[in-house]
Amino acid sequence: MAFARTCSVALVGVEGVVVEVQADLEPGVAAFTLVGLPDKSLVESRDRVRAAVVNAGAEWPQKKLTVGLSPASVPKSGSGFDLSVACAVLGAAERIDPRAIADLMMIGELGLDGRVRHVRGVLPAVLAAADAGYRQVVVPEQAVAEASLVPDVTVLGVRSLRQLIALLTDEAPPEDGEQEQQQERADRLGTPGRSEAVLGGFLVPGSGRAVTAGGERQLDLAEVAGQAGARRALEVAAAGRHHLFFKGPPGAGKTMLAERLPGLLPPLSAAESLEVTAVHSVAGTLPPGHPLVERPPYCAPHHSATMAALIGGGTGLPHPGAVSVAHHGVLFLDEAAECSGRVLDAMRQPLESGYVVVARASGMMRLPARFLLVLAANPCPCGRHGMNAGGCECRPSSIRRYRARLSGPLLDRVDLRVTVHPLTRSELAALEGTAECTATVAARVREARERAAARYAGTDWTTNSDVPGHALRKGWPVAPGALREAEEDMDRGVLTARGLDRVLRVAWTVADLAGHDRPTAADVRCALELRTGITRGSTLSGSRL
Protein backbone atom coordinates (compact mmCIF):
# COMPACT_ATOMS: atom_id res chain seq x y z
CA MET A 1 0.00 0.00 0.00
CA ALA A 2 1.24 3.52 -0.90
CA PHE A 3 -0.05 6.62 0.88
CA ALA A 4 0.52 10.38 0.67
CA ARG A 5 -1.20 13.46 1.95
CA THR A 6 -1.22 17.21 1.44
CA CYS A 7 -3.60 20.03 2.34
CA SER A 8 -6.05 22.44 0.79
CA VAL A 9 -8.86 24.70 2.03
CA ALA A 10 -12.65 24.45 1.80
CA LEU A 11 -14.45 27.79 1.84
CA VAL A 12 -17.62 28.16 3.87
CA GLY A 13 -18.77 31.64 2.92
CA VAL A 14 -15.72 33.86 3.47
CA GLU A 15 -14.19 31.58 6.09
CA GLY A 16 -11.83 28.73 5.29
CA VAL A 17 -11.57 25.23 6.76
CA VAL A 18 -8.30 23.35 6.32
CA VAL A 19 -8.85 20.05 4.52
CA GLU A 20 -6.36 17.18 4.47
CA VAL A 21 -6.20 15.55 1.03
CA GLN A 22 -5.18 11.91 1.35
CA ALA A 23 -4.37 9.51 -1.50
CA ASP A 24 -4.17 5.73 -1.09
CA LEU A 25 -3.00 3.25 -3.75
CA GLU A 26 -3.78 -0.47 -3.46
CA PRO A 27 -3.41 -3.42 -5.84
CA GLY A 28 -6.57 -4.12 -7.78
CA VAL A 29 -8.60 -3.04 -10.75
CA ALA A 30 -7.70 0.50 -11.83
CA ALA A 31 -10.29 2.90 -10.39
CA PHE A 32 -10.44 6.41 -8.98
CA THR A 33 -12.75 7.04 -6.01
CA LEU A 34 -13.18 10.49 -4.43
CA VAL A 35 -14.77 10.61 -0.97
CA GLY A 36 -15.32 13.31 1.65
CA LEU A 37 -18.59 15.08 0.76
CA PRO A 38 -17.53 16.61 -2.59
CA ASP A 39 -19.96 18.53 -4.80
CA LYS A 40 -20.44 18.04 -8.54
CA SER A 41 -17.59 20.33 -9.61
CA LEU A 42 -15.23 18.56 -7.21
CA VAL A 43 -16.29 15.10 -8.39
CA GLU A 44 -15.38 16.17 -11.93
CA SER A 45 -11.82 16.80 -10.72
CA ARG A 46 -11.12 13.09 -11.21
CA ASP A 47 -11.10 13.54 -14.98
CA ARG A 48 -9.29 16.90 -14.86
CA VAL A 49 -6.54 15.58 -12.58
CA ARG A 50 -5.99 12.41 -14.60
CA ALA A 51 -5.61 14.33 -17.88
CA ALA A 52 -3.41 17.00 -16.25
CA VAL A 53 -1.05 14.41 -14.72
CA VAL A 54 -0.62 12.58 -18.03
CA ASN A 55 -0.10 15.80 -20.02
CA ALA A 56 2.43 16.97 -17.43
CA GLY A 57 4.64 14.01 -18.41
CA ALA A 58 3.92 11.84 -15.36
CA GLU A 59 2.55 8.32 -15.37
CA TRP A 60 -0.92 7.73 -14.02
CA PRO A 61 -0.93 4.81 -11.53
CA GLN A 62 -2.87 1.80 -12.80
CA LYS A 63 -4.12 0.70 -9.39
CA LYS A 64 -7.08 1.14 -7.13
CA LEU A 65 -6.91 4.79 -6.10
CA THR A 66 -8.89 6.35 -3.28
CA VAL A 67 -8.68 10.06 -2.50
CA GLY A 68 -10.21 11.22 0.77
CA LEU A 69 -10.98 14.78 1.84
CA SER A 70 -10.91 15.12 5.62
CA PRO A 71 -12.86 16.19 7.65
CA ALA A 72 -15.58 14.41 5.72
CA SER A 73 -18.38 16.26 7.51
CA VAL A 74 -17.50 19.63 5.90
CA PRO A 75 -19.14 20.25 2.50
CA LYS A 76 -16.54 20.87 -0.19
CA SER A 77 -17.10 22.61 -3.48
CA GLY A 78 -15.24 24.15 -6.37
CA SER A 79 -12.20 23.24 -8.43
CA GLY A 80 -9.56 24.61 -6.06
CA PHE A 81 -8.70 21.12 -4.79
CA ASP A 82 -7.34 19.94 -8.16
CA LEU A 83 -3.71 20.80 -7.47
CA SER A 84 -3.65 19.14 -4.04
CA VAL A 85 -5.39 16.01 -5.35
CA ALA A 86 -2.89 15.67 -8.21
CA CYS A 87 0.11 16.06 -5.89
CA ALA A 88 -1.32 13.60 -3.37
CA VAL A 89 -1.78 11.02 -6.14
CA LEU A 90 1.76 11.61 -7.43
CA GLY A 91 3.07 11.32 -3.87
CA ALA A 92 1.31 8.00 -3.35
CA ALA A 93 2.75 6.82 -6.69
CA GLU A 94 6.22 7.93 -5.46
CA ARG A 95 6.67 10.29 -8.40
CA ILE A 96 7.03 12.97 -5.69
CA ASP A 97 8.49 12.46 -2.24
CA PRO A 98 5.43 12.30 0.08
CA ARG A 99 7.38 14.15 2.76
CA ALA A 100 7.87 17.13 0.44
CA ILE A 101 4.12 17.79 0.18
CA ALA A 102 2.95 16.81 3.67
CA ASP A 103 3.20 20.36 5.05
CA LEU A 104 2.27 22.23 1.87
CA MET A 105 -1.02 24.03 1.37
CA MET A 106 -2.11 23.84 -2.29
CA ILE A 107 -4.86 25.84 -3.99
CA GLY A 108 -5.58 25.83 -7.71
CA GLU A 109 -7.59 24.41 -10.57
CA LEU A 110 -5.96 22.25 -13.23
CA GLY A 111 -6.63 22.44 -16.94
CA LEU A 112 -6.53 19.27 -19.00
CA ASP A 113 -3.13 20.31 -20.36
CA GLY A 114 -1.69 20.72 -16.86
CA ARG A 115 -1.96 24.50 -16.57
CA VAL A 116 -2.82 25.85 -13.12
CA ARG A 117 -5.78 28.21 -13.23
CA HIS A 118 -6.91 30.91 -10.84
CA VAL A 119 -9.80 30.18 -8.46
CA ARG A 120 -11.99 32.31 -6.26
CA GLY A 121 -11.28 32.83 -2.58
CA VAL A 122 -7.47 32.61 -2.56
CA LEU A 123 -7.06 35.27 0.14
CA PRO A 124 -9.49 33.78 2.71
CA ALA A 125 -8.04 30.34 1.96
CA VAL A 126 -4.49 31.51 2.69
CA LEU A 127 -5.71 33.33 5.81
CA ALA A 128 -7.23 30.06 7.05
CA ALA A 129 -3.99 28.22 6.28
CA ALA A 130 -1.97 30.80 8.22
CA ASP A 131 -4.32 30.55 11.19
CA ALA A 132 -3.88 26.76 11.14
CA GLY A 133 -0.09 27.13 11.30
CA TYR A 134 0.86 26.50 7.66
CA ARG A 135 3.68 28.69 6.41
CA GLN A 136 4.07 27.47 2.80
CA VAL A 137 1.33 27.72 0.19
CA VAL A 138 1.23 26.93 -3.51
CA VAL A 139 -1.16 29.01 -5.62
CA PRO A 140 -1.66 29.83 -9.32
CA GLU A 141 0.80 32.34 -10.65
CA GLN A 142 -2.01 34.88 -11.20
CA ALA A 143 -2.90 34.76 -7.47
CA VAL A 144 0.58 35.38 -6.00
CA ALA A 145 -0.07 39.07 -5.27
CA GLU A 146 -3.37 38.24 -3.57
CA ALA A 147 -1.92 35.42 -1.46
CA SER A 148 1.11 37.53 -0.50
CA LEU A 149 -1.17 39.91 1.42
CA VAL A 150 -1.10 37.42 4.30
CA PRO A 151 1.98 38.03 6.49
CA ASP A 152 4.44 35.32 7.57
CA VAL A 153 3.47 32.97 4.74
CA THR A 154 5.79 31.90 1.92
CA VAL A 155 3.90 31.90 -1.37
CA LEU A 156 4.95 29.84 -4.38
CA GLY A 157 3.22 30.70 -7.64
CA VAL A 158 3.18 28.01 -10.32
CA ARG A 159 2.10 28.13 -13.92
CA SER A 160 1.66 24.41 -14.52
CA LEU A 161 1.71 21.04 -12.82
CA ARG A 162 4.87 20.15 -14.74
CA GLN A 163 6.62 23.14 -13.19
CA LEU A 164 5.50 22.17 -9.68
CA ILE A 165 6.69 18.58 -10.12
CA ALA A 166 10.09 19.85 -11.23
CA LEU A 167 10.36 22.14 -8.19
CA LEU A 168 9.39 19.37 -5.75
CA THR A 169 11.80 16.84 -7.30
CA ASP A 170 14.74 19.24 -7.86
CA GLU A 171 14.57 18.71 -11.60
CA ALA A 172 15.28 21.37 -14.21
CA PRO A 173 12.22 23.62 -14.51
CA PRO A 174 10.56 23.51 -17.96
CA GLU A 175 10.02 27.28 -18.04
CA ASP A 176 11.59 28.23 -21.36
CA GLY A 177 10.23 25.43 -23.50
CA GLU A 178 6.82 25.68 -21.90
CA GLN A 179 6.58 29.41 -22.57
CA GLU A 180 7.51 28.88 -26.22
CA GLN A 181 4.79 26.23 -26.60
CA GLN A 182 2.25 28.53 -24.95
CA GLN A 183 3.18 31.38 -27.25
CA GLU A 184 2.83 29.11 -30.30
CA ARG A 185 -0.65 28.05 -29.14
CA ALA A 186 -1.58 31.69 -28.51
CA ASP A 187 -0.44 32.63 -32.02
CA ARG A 188 -2.57 29.84 -33.50
CA LEU A 189 -5.56 31.19 -31.54
CA GLY A 190 -5.02 34.58 -33.16
CA THR A 191 -3.97 36.34 -29.94
CA PRO A 192 -0.24 37.03 -30.47
CA GLY A 193 1.60 38.25 -27.41
CA ARG A 194 -0.98 36.90 -24.99
CA SER A 195 0.33 33.82 -23.25
CA GLU A 196 -1.92 31.12 -21.86
CA ALA A 197 -0.57 31.93 -18.43
CA VAL A 198 -2.76 34.99 -18.66
CA LEU A 199 -5.65 33.06 -20.19
CA GLY A 200 -5.51 30.76 -17.17
CA GLY A 201 -6.89 33.53 -14.95
CA PHE A 202 -10.36 33.89 -16.43
CA LEU A 203 -12.57 36.40 -14.67
CA VAL A 204 -15.97 35.19 -13.54
CA PRO A 205 -18.58 37.92 -13.97
CA GLY A 206 -20.63 38.96 -10.96
CA SER A 207 -24.31 38.22 -10.61
CA GLY A 208 -25.73 41.55 -11.70
CA ARG A 209 -23.39 43.53 -9.45
CA ALA A 210 -21.54 46.69 -10.45
CA VAL A 211 -18.45 47.12 -8.29
CA THR A 212 -15.97 49.94 -8.79
CA ALA A 213 -12.46 48.82 -9.67
CA GLY A 214 -9.33 50.28 -8.18
CA GLY A 215 -8.24 51.90 -11.42
CA GLU A 216 -11.51 53.70 -12.25
CA ARG A 217 -11.68 57.48 -12.22
CA GLN A 218 -13.05 58.95 -9.02
CA LEU A 219 -16.18 61.01 -9.65
CA ASP A 220 -16.04 64.56 -8.32
CA LEU A 221 -18.80 66.14 -6.26
CA ALA A 222 -18.08 69.46 -8.02
CA GLU A 223 -19.73 68.00 -11.12
CA VAL A 224 -23.10 68.11 -9.32
CA ALA A 225 -24.68 71.55 -9.71
CA GLY A 226 -27.05 72.84 -7.05
CA GLN A 227 -28.75 70.44 -4.62
CA ALA A 228 -27.28 72.09 -1.54
CA GLY A 229 -29.49 70.17 0.86
CA ALA A 230 -28.78 66.82 -0.78
CA ARG A 231 -25.05 67.52 -0.86
CA ARG A 232 -25.04 68.28 2.85
CA ALA A 233 -27.01 65.12 3.56
CA LEU A 234 -24.38 63.24 1.59
CA GLU A 235 -21.67 64.79 3.77
CA VAL A 236 -23.50 63.81 6.97
CA ALA A 237 -24.01 60.27 5.66
CA ALA A 238 -20.29 59.90 4.92
CA ALA A 239 -19.18 61.41 8.25
CA GLY A 240 -21.36 59.21 10.46
CA ARG A 241 -22.04 56.26 8.12
CA HIS A 242 -25.76 56.99 8.15
CA HIS A 243 -28.13 55.34 5.68
CA LEU A 244 -29.68 57.72 3.16
CA PHE A 245 -32.88 57.91 1.09
CA PHE A 246 -33.18 60.24 -1.91
CA LYS A 247 -36.68 60.93 -3.23
CA GLY A 248 -37.23 63.05 -6.30
CA PRO A 249 -38.25 63.13 -9.96
CA PRO A 250 -36.14 61.56 -12.73
CA GLY A 251 -33.14 63.63 -13.77
CA ALA A 252 -32.86 65.55 -10.51
CA GLY A 253 -29.42 64.10 -9.73
CA LYS A 254 -30.10 61.25 -7.27
CA THR A 255 -27.80 58.79 -9.01
CA MET A 256 -25.06 61.39 -9.55
CA LEU A 257 -25.01 62.13 -5.83
CA ALA A 258 -24.94 58.48 -4.80
CA GLU A 259 -22.11 57.66 -7.19
CA ARG A 260 -19.93 60.31 -5.56
CA LEU A 261 -20.48 59.13 -1.99
CA PRO A 262 -17.57 56.59 -1.98
CA GLY A 263 -15.14 59.41 -2.75
CA LEU A 264 -16.14 61.15 0.49
CA LEU A 265 -15.43 58.09 2.64
CA PRO A 266 -11.98 57.68 4.25
CA PRO A 267 -9.68 54.98 2.82
CA LEU A 268 -10.06 51.53 4.32
CA SER A 269 -7.82 50.57 7.21
CA ALA A 270 -5.47 47.59 6.84
CA ALA A 271 -7.88 45.26 8.63
CA GLU A 272 -10.87 46.53 6.64
CA SER A 273 -8.97 46.11 3.37
CA LEU A 274 -8.31 42.45 4.13
CA GLU A 275 -11.96 41.87 5.07
CA VAL A 276 -13.25 43.52 1.89
CA THR A 277 -10.67 41.81 -0.32
CA ALA A 278 -11.59 38.41 1.15
CA VAL A 279 -15.27 38.95 0.30
CA HIS A 280 -14.48 40.16 -3.23
CA SER A 281 -12.12 37.23 -3.74
CA VAL A 282 -14.88 34.74 -2.89
CA ALA A 283 -17.41 36.66 -4.99
CA GLY A 284 -15.03 36.79 -7.97
CA THR A 285 -15.17 40.59 -8.24
CA LEU A 286 -11.52 41.48 -7.56
CA PRO A 287 -10.40 43.84 -10.35
CA PRO A 288 -7.41 42.66 -12.42
CA GLY A 289 -4.12 44.06 -11.21
CA HIS A 290 -5.55 45.19 -7.86
CA PRO A 291 -5.21 42.30 -5.39
CA LEU A 292 -5.96 44.54 -2.39
CA VAL A 293 -9.11 46.65 -2.18
CA GLU A 294 -8.05 49.91 -0.51
CA ARG A 295 -11.01 52.14 -1.34
CA PRO A 296 -14.57 51.67 -0.04
CA PRO A 297 -16.42 49.57 -2.64
CA TYR A 298 -19.49 50.83 -4.45
CA CYS A 299 -22.08 48.24 -5.43
CA ALA A 300 -25.18 49.10 -7.47
CA PRO A 301 -27.28 46.04 -8.35
CA HIS A 302 -30.18 46.31 -10.74
CA HIS A 303 -33.61 46.73 -9.18
CA SER A 304 -34.59 43.28 -10.51
CA ALA A 305 -31.93 41.56 -8.35
CA THR A 306 -33.13 38.41 -6.62
CA MET A 307 -32.89 37.55 -2.95
CA ALA A 308 -29.78 35.43 -3.56
CA ALA A 309 -28.09 38.17 -5.59
CA LEU A 310 -28.75 40.89 -3.02
CA ILE A 311 -28.61 39.10 0.34
CA GLY A 312 -26.58 36.01 -0.56
CA GLY A 313 -27.38 32.40 -1.26
CA GLY A 314 -27.62 30.20 -4.33
CA THR A 315 -27.57 26.46 -4.85
CA GLY A 316 -25.46 24.42 -2.47
CA LEU A 317 -23.40 26.48 -0.07
CA PRO A 318 -24.46 30.16 -0.14
CA HIS A 319 -22.33 32.76 -1.89
CA PRO A 320 -21.92 36.44 -0.90
CA GLY A 321 -24.61 38.80 -2.11
CA ALA A 322 -24.46 42.50 -2.93
CA VAL A 323 -24.80 43.47 0.74
CA SER A 324 -21.57 41.59 1.46
CA VAL A 325 -19.79 42.84 -1.67
CA ALA A 326 -20.54 46.36 -0.39
CA HIS A 327 -19.01 45.58 3.02
CA HIS A 328 -17.34 48.76 4.41
CA GLY A 329 -18.58 50.59 1.33
CA VAL A 330 -21.76 51.86 -0.34
CA LEU A 331 -24.74 49.84 -1.54
CA PHE A 332 -26.88 51.92 -3.91
CA LEU A 333 -30.37 50.74 -4.84
CA ASP A 334 -31.68 52.92 -7.63
CA GLU A 335 -35.40 52.74 -8.43
CA ALA A 336 -35.83 51.21 -4.97
CA ALA A 337 -39.61 51.24 -5.24
CA GLU A 338 -39.32 48.88 -8.23
CA CYS A 339 -37.40 46.31 -6.17
CA SER A 340 -39.16 43.33 -4.67
CA GLY A 341 -40.62 44.25 -1.30
CA ARG A 342 -39.60 40.86 0.06
CA VAL A 343 -35.99 41.42 -1.01
CA LEU A 344 -35.88 44.93 0.44
CA ASP A 345 -37.28 43.82 3.79
CA ALA A 346 -34.63 41.10 3.97
CA MET A 347 -32.07 43.91 4.43
CA ARG A 348 -33.59 44.96 7.74
CA GLN A 349 -31.53 42.44 9.73
CA PRO A 350 -28.10 43.24 8.21
CA LEU A 351 -28.79 46.98 8.51
CA GLU A 352 -28.97 46.51 12.28
CA SER A 353 -26.40 43.77 12.89
CA GLY A 354 -23.80 44.31 10.16
CA TYR A 355 -23.82 40.70 8.99
CA VAL A 356 -26.04 38.17 7.20
CA VAL A 357 -26.75 34.65 8.41
CA VAL A 358 -27.76 32.45 5.46
CA ALA A 359 -29.16 29.02 6.32
CA ARG A 360 -29.43 26.20 3.81
CA ALA A 361 -29.94 22.46 4.06
CA SER A 362 -26.26 21.96 3.19
CA GLY A 363 -24.96 24.41 5.76
CA MET A 364 -25.24 27.72 7.55
CA MET A 365 -22.83 30.60 7.26
CA ARG A 366 -22.35 34.16 8.46
CA LEU A 367 -21.32 36.77 5.89
CA PRO A 368 -20.14 40.32 6.72
CA ALA A 369 -22.48 43.09 5.58
CA ARG A 370 -21.62 46.41 7.25
CA PHE A 371 -22.48 48.77 4.41
CA LEU A 372 -23.82 52.29 3.92
CA LEU A 373 -27.20 52.02 2.20
CA VAL A 374 -28.40 54.65 -0.28
CA LEU A 375 -31.93 54.33 -1.64
CA ALA A 376 -33.31 56.38 -4.53
CA ALA A 377 -36.91 56.44 -5.69
CA ASN A 378 -39.34 58.55 -7.70
CA PRO A 379 -42.31 60.16 -5.95
CA CYS A 380 -44.81 58.22 -8.07
CA PRO A 381 -44.84 55.70 -10.96
CA CYS A 382 -44.53 58.44 -13.59
CA GLY A 383 -42.07 60.45 -11.49
CA ARG A 384 -43.79 63.84 -11.92
CA HIS A 385 -45.88 64.03 -8.76
CA GLY A 386 -45.36 67.32 -6.91
CA MET A 387 -43.49 69.06 -9.74
CA ASN A 388 -44.32 72.68 -10.48
CA ALA A 389 -45.03 71.92 -14.13
CA GLY A 390 -47.46 69.19 -13.11
CA GLY A 391 -48.21 66.49 -15.65
CA CYS A 392 -48.68 63.64 -13.17
CA GLU A 393 -51.59 61.42 -14.17
CA CYS A 394 -51.13 58.77 -11.50
CA ARG A 395 -54.15 57.94 -9.38
CA PRO A 396 -53.86 58.55 -5.63
CA SER A 397 -54.27 54.82 -5.01
CA SER A 398 -51.41 54.08 -7.43
CA ILE A 399 -49.16 56.59 -5.66
CA ARG A 400 -49.97 55.04 -2.27
CA ARG A 401 -49.22 51.52 -3.52
CA TYR A 402 -46.00 52.71 -5.15
CA ARG A 403 -44.73 54.37 -1.98
CA ALA A 404 -45.84 51.44 0.18
CA ARG A 405 -43.28 49.23 -1.56
CA LEU A 406 -40.72 50.79 0.78
CA SER A 407 -42.01 49.45 4.07
CA GLY A 408 -42.14 51.48 7.26
CA PRO A 409 -39.78 49.15 9.18
CA LEU A 410 -37.17 49.50 6.42
CA LEU A 411 -37.41 53.30 6.24
CA ASP A 412 -37.29 53.47 10.04
CA ARG A 413 -33.73 52.16 9.75
CA VAL A 414 -32.76 54.91 7.29
CA ASP A 415 -31.39 57.92 9.14
CA LEU A 416 -31.55 60.59 6.41
CA ARG A 417 -34.47 61.21 4.06
CA VAL A 418 -33.98 63.98 1.53
CA THR A 419 -36.18 65.27 -1.27
CA VAL A 420 -34.13 66.09 -4.36
CA HIS A 421 -35.80 68.87 -6.35
CA PRO A 422 -35.22 69.40 -10.07
CA LEU A 423 -32.80 72.17 -11.02
CA THR A 424 -33.91 75.30 -12.76
CA ARG A 425 -31.93 76.78 -15.63
CA SER A 426 -30.85 79.75 -13.50
CA GLU A 427 -29.57 77.44 -10.72
CA LEU A 428 -27.63 75.37 -13.21
CA ALA A 429 -25.99 78.44 -14.72
CA ALA A 430 -25.34 80.24 -11.43
CA LEU A 431 -23.77 77.32 -9.60
CA GLU A 432 -21.68 75.91 -12.42
CA GLY A 433 -18.04 75.70 -11.33
CA THR A 434 -18.65 77.03 -7.82
CA ALA A 435 -19.65 73.83 -5.99
CA GLU A 436 -17.24 72.26 -3.52
CA CYS A 437 -15.12 69.43 -4.85
CA THR A 438 -14.87 65.94 -3.37
CA ALA A 439 -11.46 66.60 -1.78
CA THR A 440 -12.75 69.57 0.22
CA VAL A 441 -15.80 67.74 1.56
CA ALA A 442 -13.79 64.56 2.20
CA ALA A 443 -11.39 66.56 4.37
CA ARG A 444 -14.27 67.69 6.58
CA VAL A 445 -15.59 64.14 6.71
CA ARG A 446 -12.17 62.85 7.75
CA GLU A 447 -11.95 65.44 10.54
CA ALA A 448 -15.43 64.54 11.79
CA ARG A 449 -14.58 60.85 11.79
CA GLU A 450 -11.39 61.55 13.73
CA ARG A 451 -13.39 63.42 16.37
CA ALA A 452 -15.81 60.52 16.68
CA ALA A 453 -13.00 57.95 16.84
CA ALA A 454 -11.27 59.90 19.61
CA ARG A 455 -14.53 60.15 21.54
CA TYR A 456 -15.16 56.40 21.32
CA ALA A 457 -11.56 55.36 21.96
CA GLY A 458 -11.42 52.22 24.08
CA THR A 459 -14.80 50.96 22.82
CA ASP A 460 -15.81 48.74 19.90
CA TRP A 461 -17.34 51.72 18.04
CA THR A 462 -15.70 54.10 15.59
CA THR A 463 -18.61 56.01 13.98
CA ASN A 464 -21.75 57.55 15.43
CA SER A 465 -24.06 55.11 13.64
CA ASP A 466 -22.40 52.19 15.45
CA VAL A 467 -23.18 53.38 18.99
CA PRO A 468 -26.35 51.98 20.63
CA GLY A 469 -28.80 54.65 21.70
CA HIS A 470 -28.74 53.78 25.40
CA ALA A 471 -24.92 53.93 25.46
CA LEU A 472 -24.93 57.27 23.65
CA ARG A 473 -27.46 58.82 26.04
CA LYS A 474 -25.67 57.48 29.12
CA GLY A 475 -22.05 58.06 28.16
CA TRP A 476 -22.23 61.17 26.00
CA PRO A 477 -25.20 63.42 26.92
CA VAL A 478 -26.25 66.29 24.68
CA ALA A 479 -26.61 69.93 25.75
CA PRO A 480 -29.44 70.55 28.25
CA GLY A 481 -32.79 70.87 26.49
CA ALA A 482 -31.37 69.99 23.08
CA LEU A 483 -33.66 66.97 22.65
CA ARG A 484 -36.89 68.80 23.48
CA GLU A 485 -38.18 68.95 19.88
CA ALA A 486 -37.24 65.34 19.20
CA GLU A 487 -39.03 64.15 22.34
CA GLU A 488 -42.12 66.14 21.35
CA ASP A 489 -42.07 64.45 17.93
CA MET A 490 -41.90 61.08 19.67
CA ASP A 491 -44.90 61.96 21.83
CA ARG A 492 -46.85 62.91 18.68
CA GLY A 493 -45.91 59.63 16.99
CA VAL A 494 -43.70 61.25 14.35
CA LEU A 495 -40.67 59.34 15.71
CA THR A 496 -40.35 55.82 17.07
CA ALA A 497 -37.95 54.92 19.85
CA ARG A 498 -35.52 53.68 17.19
CA GLY A 499 -36.06 56.91 15.27
CA LEU A 500 -35.20 58.99 18.33
CA ASP A 501 -31.94 57.06 18.79
CA ARG A 502 -31.07 57.62 15.14
CA VAL A 503 -31.81 61.34 15.40
CA LEU A 504 -29.42 61.45 18.34
CA ARG A 505 -26.69 59.73 16.32
CA VAL A 506 -27.17 62.09 13.38
CA ALA A 507 -27.05 65.06 15.77
CA TRP A 508 -23.65 63.91 17.00
CA THR A 509 -22.43 63.70 13.40
CA VAL A 510 -23.73 67.22 12.68
CA ALA A 511 -21.92 68.41 15.81
CA ASP A 512 -18.69 66.70 14.73
CA LEU A 513 -18.86 68.42 11.34
CA ALA A 514 -19.51 71.77 13.01
CA GLY A 515 -16.73 71.28 15.58
CA HIS A 516 -19.05 71.25 18.60
CA ASP A 517 -18.11 69.34 21.75
CA ARG A 518 -21.65 68.03 22.03
CA PRO A 519 -24.89 68.47 20.06
CA THR A 520 -26.79 71.71 20.58
CA ALA A 521 -30.49 72.33 19.99
CA ALA A 522 -29.62 73.55 16.45
CA ASP A 523 -27.73 70.30 15.73
CA VAL A 524 -30.69 68.20 16.88
CA ARG A 525 -33.04 70.38 14.83
CA CYS A 526 -30.88 69.77 11.76
CA ALA A 527 -30.94 66.03 12.44
CA LEU A 528 -34.72 66.10 12.78
CA GLU A 529 -35.06 67.90 9.46
CA LEU A 530 -32.84 65.32 7.77
CA ARG A 531 -34.85 62.53 9.41
CA THR A 532 -38.40 63.73 8.86
CA GLY A 533 -38.05 66.06 5.88
CA ILE A 534 -39.99 68.75 7.78
CA THR A 535 -38.36 72.20 7.55
CA ARG A 536 -37.58 73.50 11.03
CA GLY A 537 -35.33 76.49 10.30
CA SER A 538 -32.15 74.49 10.89
CA THR A 539 -28.70 75.20 9.51
CA LEU A 540 -29.65 73.24 6.40
CA SER A 541 -30.73 76.54 4.94
CA GLY A 542 -27.26 77.98 5.51
CA SER A 543 -24.10 77.57 3.52
CA ARG A 544 -22.66 74.77 5.65
CA LEU A 545 -23.67 72.37 8.37
From TrEMBL:
<protein>
    <submittedName>
        <fullName>ATP-binding protein</fullName>
    </submittedName>
</protein>
<dbReference type="InterPro" id="IPR027417">
    <property type="entry name" value="P-loop_NTPase"/>
</dbReference>
<dbReference type="InterPro" id="IPR003593">
    <property type="entry name" value="AAA+_ATPase"/>
</dbReference>
<keyword id="KW-0547">Nucleotide-binding</keyword>
<dbReference type="Pfam" id="PF01078">
    <property type="entry name" value="Mg_chelatase"/>
</dbReference>
<dbReference type="GO" id="GO:0005524">
    <property type="term" value="F:ATP binding"/>
</dbReference>
<feature type="compositionally biased region" description="Acidic residues">
    <location>
        <begin position="172"/>
        <end position="181"/>
    </location>
</feature>
<keyword id="KW-0067">ATP-binding</keyword>
<dbReference type="InterPro" id="IPR014721">
    <property type="entry name" value="Ribsml_uS5_D2-typ_fold_subgr"/>
</dbReference>
<dbReference type="InterPro" id="IPR020568">
    <property type="entry name" value="Ribosomal_Su5_D2-typ_SF"/>
</dbReference>
<feature type="domain" description="AAA+ ATPase">
    <location>
        <begin position="240"/>
        <end position="424"/>
    </location>
</feature>
<dbReference type="InterPro" id="IPR000523">
    <property type="entry name" value="Mg_chelatse_chII-like_cat_dom"/>
</dbReference>
<dbReference type="Pfam" id="PF13541">
    <property type="entry name" value="ChlI"/>
</dbReference>
<dbReference type="InterPro" id="IPR025158">
    <property type="entry name" value="Mg_chelat-rel_C"/>
</dbReference>
<feature type="region of interest" description="Disordered">
    <location>
        <begin position="170"/>
        <end position="192"/>
    </location>
</feature>
<dbReference type="Pfam" id="PF13335">
    <property type="entry name" value="Mg_chelatase_C"/>
</dbReference>
<dbReference type="InterPro" id="IPR045006">
    <property type="entry name" value="CHLI-like"/>
</dbReference>
